[in-house]
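User: structure tokens for this one?
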Amino acid sequence: MEVTLLGTGAPAGLPRPDCPCAACATALGPDARAATALLVDGALLLDLTPGAAFAAARAGHSLGGVRQVLLSHPHDGPPVEVPAGLPQPVRVPDGRELTLLTGHRVRAVAMDAGGTGYAVTGPDGRRLLYLPPGGAPAGLETATAESYDMVLADAVGRPDALARLRAVGSVGPTTDVLAVHLDHDVPPGGELRRRLAAAGARAVPDGTTLVVGVYEDVPDVPRRTLVLGGARSGKSVEAERRLESFPDVLYVATGGTRGGDTEWAARVAAHRERRPGSWRTSETTDLVPVLAADGPPVLIDCLSLWLTYVMDEVGAWDDAEWAGGGEKALRERVRELTEAVRCARRTVVAVSNEVGSGIVPATASGRRYRDELGRLNAAFASECEQVLLIVAGQAVVLRG
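Assistant:
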């Protein structure tokens, strides 16, 4: 089964008309995208968009052989003309199945928002799933027998759709996940590729033709990632974003509850509201057993608070205790943690503060903490496939 992506953008396209944002201003060349539409084996058209016939011609195809046109969502904007000879577009009711004369079988998939998804099985038995913009499948309670060969979805706007599909086995290790309906939520180019790679997905330019089921060299999701950044840099948001397309994430909060501290409680509440509802939370500083256990991906936020707790335990703030064994005890705890990261089999994303580039602390204990956090970050980073530094909400890749 062969799929040609006539467009890969949001319904309004990318760049959006008359939009002054930076993402739209830089969406040029291969990063410019028409509204998403798919041509399957020259016989099935999923979503009819303005200029579909010209887009097909530019890709070396014709719409002359199309036998069915299915819409996944209402078209906002000027009416779309149906090219001569093309069947009238329709939307299939949820759960209904069609069998085309070409041997393709199409099933309409219910969404949790407006729109209809389509599961297409080709004459060769290969399977693809196409989801509308802003939609995720509804009613996926049980595991499926096999994963799709290809999934085309709004991976940027609705990463939880991939999480749901992964939870029931519809997206597996060999599924080619393609991001479509791309809008100006994420800057184009390298930043978009990096974010999608972290979700096990990729984007292709308009006009690309792909064979469903053929191996594609998609970057593997990094198994261990360290996200560094200063205060309010966006490091926690970046870390959470890297795992929001995966189900059953374990969020490890190392900061505790701090009873009576209303400002801290507000921070914790903001983090909780931002996280997907399917994630579990564990408030602990005992990280070694967490890393040693098998299980779903784990997000540790953050190493800086873990270090504060450990330095409290070993008496690092007292010069006499520090010289009398506290320093040695801290080095051992850091060594145990980094060895646990090295041996971890689960996906790990950890957050830590980068404090060494600011003002030199005025106290000896402050300088000690700064130095030890720098050593911890360096040791942890050495065990990670990917290390990011977040500056003003922008990710700079240091490794990976």
